[in-house]
Queue: 4 jobs
Job 1
Amino acid sequence: MHLSDFKKVFFEKLSDFYPETEVQSFYFLLTQHYLGKTRLDLALEPKYELSEEQREQFQKALLRLKKYEPVQHILEETEFYGLRFKVSKEVLIPRPETEELVSWILEDLASEEKSIRILDIGSGSGCIPVSLAKNLNTAEVHSWDVSEEALKIAIFNAKINNVNVDFQLKDIMKTVDLEQQYDLIVSNPPYVRNLEKKEMHSNVLDHEPELALYVDDEDALIFYRKISELAAKNLKTGGSLYFEINQYLGKETLRLVQGFGFEAELKKDIFGNDRMLKAIRINGGEL
Ligand code: GLN
């Protein structure tokens, strides 16, 4: 079968399920992954012939996409900050907004000369600690997660990206002390309220880990409160705390963090939503 014939089928079959731009992006991700061909390669080979095995691979992927399985689960990997990450249903698929958070941190640290100690809370796939470690040669990077399954993936991702991250199995909600002083603490904790589920698509709702995503409507900032409280004691003076946040709770999150004695600011993502927060520990001691 010619790839171009399959392409027609692929677009037709998925047109009831996804917008065309999304189908296009799936198509090129799959061809890159299964055939090792870029968009340009394909344009130069309009008569590319699919082997029987390749046709079956594409066919299977097509069926899974029709069930709204995330394409990253089908490929079992994704790209984040230019690096390759293995993903599974045990971890949140790295999001572009989290790349923006990593960019912000790296910009702020661009002129940093000393070696700094970083703690990431909620490793997930490891996208934050691994991309920070990759771009900060002298940093000492720690990362904690409550899920053993997530940690296995994160450890694997540190390995394939050739970086050292100290991963630990820890429940932040049960942590009373961070035990050592950090220059920087970062977290993308769960922050989606149940009331926001109606805005979400079934590729997220049915396929991604609840543990990594959702919080009670009544106490949506529970992780921010706990982490800020711990950071107020265990960030060095002048050290910084970075969060990815719920876009609808920017002001509330800012106020909460300021309540712990931090100087804090919000930052919008490329869609203009309040998505990130940075806080600096200005006082020398505990509140
Ligand atoms: N940004 C993610 C989403 O909307 C949520 C990430 C999180 O809960 N930390 O799917």
Job 2
Amino acid sequence: MQTKYIFVTGGVMSGLGKGVVTSSLAKLLQLSNQKVSCVKIDPYLNYDAGTMNPIAHGEVFVTEDGGECDMDIGNYERFLNQDIPKSHNITTAQIYSRVLEAERHGEYLGACVQIIPHVTDAIKDRIRKIAEKEQLDILVVECGGTVGDIESLPFLEALRQIRLEDGPENIIFVHVTLAPSLDVVGEQKTKPTQHSVQELRRIGIQPDLLAVRCSQPLEMAAKKKISLFSNVSVKDVFSCHDVDSILTVPQMLNDQGVVDVIFKKFGKVGLLNTSANWDKWNAIVGSFSNSKKSIKIAMVGKYVTLADSYVSVNHALKHAGAKIGKNVSIDWIDSDDLNGNINKLSLYQGIIVPGGFGERGSEGIIKTANYAREKNIPYLGICFGFQLAAIAFARYACSLPNANSTELVPNTENPVIDLLPEQKSVTNMGGSLRLGSHEIMVDDNTLAFKLYKSNTIKKRHRHRYEFNKKYLDQFKENGMNFSGYSDDKKRMEILEIPTHRFYVGVQFHPEFNSRPGFPEPSFEAFVTAAAKA
Ligand code: GLN
């Protein structure tokens, strides 16, 4: 079976929404009954996204199989409602590691190892293995960065070679560019697109389709000009104008006939019965715009200066809101700004504390967790938010005033949160946290059971520290229960306060399992409780 490939490249500048175009193309092909998946190429030299600061690079998205990936993988999962394995995030470091390892094993004996063909072969091999293993009809591959970057050259070269080897009937290159307007009613400028297509053609890639980002729908005059200068026919130039919700992009591209164009190029025929698929998807998309009345949520964390730092948490809140017909408005609050100003939180119907690392801002979060408990404000703590809620409870409800986490104060007298025992010998910082999906047991007659309606759930993790069981009885006596645990009760995974309106902390990351139309249960319950507050 020959998998067809769509290669998405980016021009002009970063941040144009290549990830959304990629996800949207994959979505509308999935709705057209194709078996699809997406791959993200990140040409940077980090082995994976795990060691990158979320303020600079956005959230680290964790996959079921424990990959610490680029946040675009999260977009693919949410659009396709499908798990994406970590092998779908390819970086320069992974490719070079593979090549260097092969060289040491003598796989290239006698040869001078070079970017072409050895590195490009390793790239092609990695992409083709995914298509083969998953038996895909179509694989959409997004190449990160902007054409002209030095780092992405070997990847673009590999994609060019795949077209040569597999034949043009099996490959579509989509180039995402920008047509800026200098003022609201102004003319749409095509020169940046012309130049970026020229750049691509210089390295031997002629795009088949152009997805042009613009604020207003792309005008025919601009389309014609772009077509002429880019050697792409007018019907293959697509407008990707601004919309309120990214979920409407598949429909927007579909309305412009993109499926017909792709199917014709791939020699596919007979599009049957896709309207039921679209109806289901559009009902989900519609639930977001139908939502009325806002629920005000405070998200208190460390990396609040970049909205992308907690992108999955933001989406999970919106999914939950849409499900109950409410719009969720989120204020990101830097925990450092709450010192002496904690009463500000009384303005919110719910407080959420997402994941985080390190000492800065932690005292503000501990105060936040305590404030939510004392004022009976719905609280959802995720990972770091679970751990700091436990510390707050130890300090203010269990008379352990100096309770802390050994992550924050290594020699604390009351290490309520402590290093996972198996982490004690770990010195390597990359890929060494407790990662990915682990099974969790849930006790009957608990709030957690009410949410998950099951005694076993599987959730994704990313942590090095955990609740110290030494304090378990003391917590119980004072009113905090642990209703979920893993690894033969070794690790506490869910905390709750039964007398509180809604006070839940989870050691795992529920946000990575939330999808449009299918909110993760802890988010849905949190938002529902907040709506009543
Ligand atoms: N820093 C904490 C740990 O490593 C929490 C991690 C997180 O929030 N993802 O355990």
Job 3
Amino acid sequence: MSLLRHQAQKCLANQVTNKGLNAFITASSPDAVLRQVETASEANDSALRGRLIAVKDNICTTDLPTTCASGILRNFRSPFDATVVEKLRAAGAIVAGKTNLDEFGMGSHNVHSAFGAAYQVDAEGREVSAGGSSGGSAVAVATEQCWAALGTDTGGSVRLPAAYAGIVGFKPSYGLVSRWGVVAYANSLDTVGVLARDTAAAKQVFDAINAHDASDPTSLAPSTRSRIRAAIAARSAASNNGAGSVPLRIGVPTTYNIAELSPAVRRAWIKTLRQLRSLGHSLHAVSLPATPSALSAYYVLAPAEASSNLAKYDGVRYGTRAAGPDGDDSGVLFSATRGRGFGDEVRRRIVLGAYTLSSEAMDNYFIRAQRVRRLVQREFDAVFRAPNPLLAAAAPGQVQEDEGIDVLVCPTAPGLPPSLQALKETKPVDAYVNDVLTVPASLAGLPAVSVPVAVDGSKEQGATVGMQVIGQYGHDDLVLEVGGVVGEFKPEAA
Ligand code: GLN
């Protein structure tokens, strides 16, 4: 029996054992998977050949439904594959199934799913958060029900679940990976990301999907891609060493050292920085003062875009109609369909977004949030030593070549995964604070990876904390490379 077939069978067996964790909304049939492994093995010699890759259920596939974990799209089947799925299939990968998520990508713990929560079980047997919104993808990878998975990251939805599940979660620079066939949540922030057990696998998947796509108007043009590649090559030639082998200037954002940071996370951060320094890299404190406002700006902008995107689900053009006559004498044709078809969190976002876009609130919320977003982008550009390749000239306030930093290193989430029970006792909006460390890179469209770092404290023995590496736009490979180094770190002897 071939090795690939053996690995596929192992994943299929793990899907059965871990079914209770609810990682998949729809799994591919085992027979179909094994048949595809056989054909893929003969056809192709890419790194993804015969590999089982799970796909978040807001990414369209023709052979399986695409529900977005919602009631309204419960029966939706796409007539086409998303470009990313097409690319994976062309590389010989096999879609393992469609993974659970927070409805339409809105949430941080994968508890807002019309198909029930995806979750994990900790060392003490407690049911704990899988993170969200790509919680199903994270659980599927962590429990080896697949080799890797696709997720989407609008404000942290790949990085946060990866941090909670102890795996790698990579969000590429905005615009590198096609969003065609990916159900929109907030277009200006949405990215397709990768969840995997190590950075090498994440890079293999990323390489297969990182390409211009004419069907996606926000896909980065081939000419810009080559310009960025040339600039990076020139910089690394000038420093006469390959990236990663030169001592790097590591930025430590002091503004990310927030009061909510749990002691275990802070300890892991300090250890990571110490280990980076012991490898010869230098550490530099940087201040990104807009960080606290970034979260509020995100929670104005993302719901605003969402309320507009979700307007099409009305049971007429898209979506499952509610039974019985819709509308009433007061006149809204689809209020019952939309009222019943969306879950609480999605309804909250639609209402919030509709309000911030209304004429009375526009200036005070939406416009201000856009300003904060610009501020966040500028602050990042002011600390990186490489200029932002999307700006024609060096941004005002751009640092000197020898003063800037190469990457930022900071935690992914303020704490360890909460138990599902604890979540029931908190208000839904309390979950928003979990995104405080991931949202800034999303607002600026920067590449960021979360890698697991061991925590050696006695209480959390065996647990890991997600450590985030953020880079300048287009420096995705460097981010993955540094992430790979950080992910190798073992806990120091106590
Ligand atoms: N938790 C954030 C939200 O609910 C991020 C979600 C995401 O990245 N899709 O909006």
Job 4
Amino acid sequence: MKKITSILSLVLIAVLAMSLFTGCGDKKKVIVMGTNAEFEPFEYMQGGKVVGFDVEIAKKVAEKLGAELIIENMQFASLITSLETKKIDFIAAGMTNNEERAKQVNFSMDYFTASQVIIVNKESDSVNSKADLEGKKIGVQLGTTGETEAKSVEGAEVKSYDTGYAAVLDLANGKIDAVVIDQEPAEKFVSKNDKIQILDEELTKEAYAIAVNKEDEELLATINEVIKEIQENGEYDKIYEQFFGKEEKEEE
Ligand code: GLN
């Protein structure tokens, strides 16, 4: 009996010590980024890890907060709901800052100027300009501004895919007439598939920003601070060069 009591008290001491240990601020803060790693060079898979331009910016935010960065990879169309339900702390996903979304989330300052472009199959003559999109089959990624843009085209049949890659595959196989998608990922797709090309005419001008939950004013302020800081101290340019391999483009 005596032995049992002493074992019990040992266990008790151990449990107490453990709870003290974890209670004593040894828990590292985490910050969760939500993204869709199908958007090279902003976020894509490499060696089983999510990497990219947006990931580098998110790392700076985590650094500033002294937090560990966790990345949740999900459907692009699920990101805003995940933010609203606090499954994630912020969205960094080449997400275009627009009024419609700003009803649901708060956007940081813009950190990248982007545009929607048209990708076509080189062997087909059906689409040579924006005007030619009328009445055509257009592939887009579900829930994107590319989808909104394509749906505004008169008589177009819009096919929404889970990924831009799937849309591009159907284009290369002649199943659709065009893909409307952001310029930088479009360039990546084209560089890996010689059956397709990008038309010169841009469809939109837009800007990417980081989205945070409407209630999270403090995080929003920190993210803005970080974006400003890295733009001023040259770290933004370094990240740019890392993923675009050239100096930041001048406006054409
Ligand atoms: N910029 C586009 C949007 O915000 C596409 C983003 C993406 O597919 N990751 O809808």
